[in-house]
Amino acid sequence: MEDVLRPLIVIGGSVALTVVVGWLVDRLLSKTDQRHPETPLWGLLRRCRFPFQVALCTSVIHGSYRETHLLSDENHWEAVGLVLTLVSIVMVGWLIVRVSAAVIESSYARYATGRRDPARARRVRTQLTLIQRVVTAVVGVVAAAVMLLQFPAMQAFGTSMLASAGVLGIVAGIAAQSTLGNLFAGLQIAFGDTVRIGDTVVVEGEWGTVHEITLTYLVVRTWDERMITMPVSYFTSKPFENWSRGGAQMTGTVFFQLDHATPVAQMRERLREILDECPAWDGRAWNLVVTDSTPTTMEVRALATARNADDLWTLRCEVREKLLIWLRDEHPYALPRVLTAPAPGQDPAHLPAQGPSPEPAEAASRP
What we know:
Elements: H1 2-35, H2 41-45, H3 49-64, H4 74-112, H5 118-149, H6 152-161, H7 165-175, H8 177-192, E1 200-203, E2 206-213, E3 217-222, E4 227-231, H9 234-237, E5 241-242, E6 250-258, H10 264-277, E7 281-293, E8 298-306, H11 309-330, H12 360-365
Antiparallel strand pairs: 1-2, 1-5, 2-3, 3-4, 6-8, 7-8
Helix pairs in contact: 1-3, 3-4, 4-5, 5-8, 10-11
């Protein structure tokens, strides 16, 4: 009877203790979260309940499993202890990652709720995201190393390879030059404020928003919802446009190729009317000038400002569309025409008139 009760008491007591302690900690965090709604830290820490309970349970069982007397062979006891140790290492590493993620996410949430510059908030978000990835990577490597050290054969292997660690480090550095370059480029982006999550950028002719930044790659979400994945080293070695640096306000231009007879003054007044009706215009500046001239046309530039890149795109499209409609309806002669021969089978009566036909007397007098 004792051989049956002892394992039940040891294992069942360990599981019961784990469940009770986990429930008490969860209730304590829940109460604290209700008392301090200004910070989400305590609510985020509740996500750590599962790895905490498993780590606690395996630790308690590891300290008392020999009291069950279930196994008589010492080798079997060592195998059970090794399994419990490995599970404990994994759960502790998972718990550390969860706790660090909760702290980092809570720090950013408290920072973002304050009245601060959006560009500064994006910079802090980028830095905290990469810090979290570094912490996860370090904890994973350390946990894997500690698990390997639990095996005597791996301890001897590590000791024998320690003498050649310098040579292996050089070889590994040469072989992983590209990976290490991206790794350091990711850290440089995080703390050098070159590009941040949420920035509007133009890379390789593609306009989009920085969606994600990792230690090795960066994801740009384009205006048509495509995801472009690029190595972070691209942003430290090649030029690119960052429309979010120096403030979100931007200036945009729209160019027109028009006839020399275009009424520029009236066109300027019409531009001002369009801008007054467009909510995307921030009211800072506007202008319309002739910037170039050719033997057949002249170039007219319309300029306007907006609060951000999205409003600027909307503003430019609306200005271009409404000015072209106004020119077509009010001053069609201002739009340049290309004279071409009628296509085969086309009725010449449907072609635009090229001017008044000469008088019969003038036609008869010509040679």
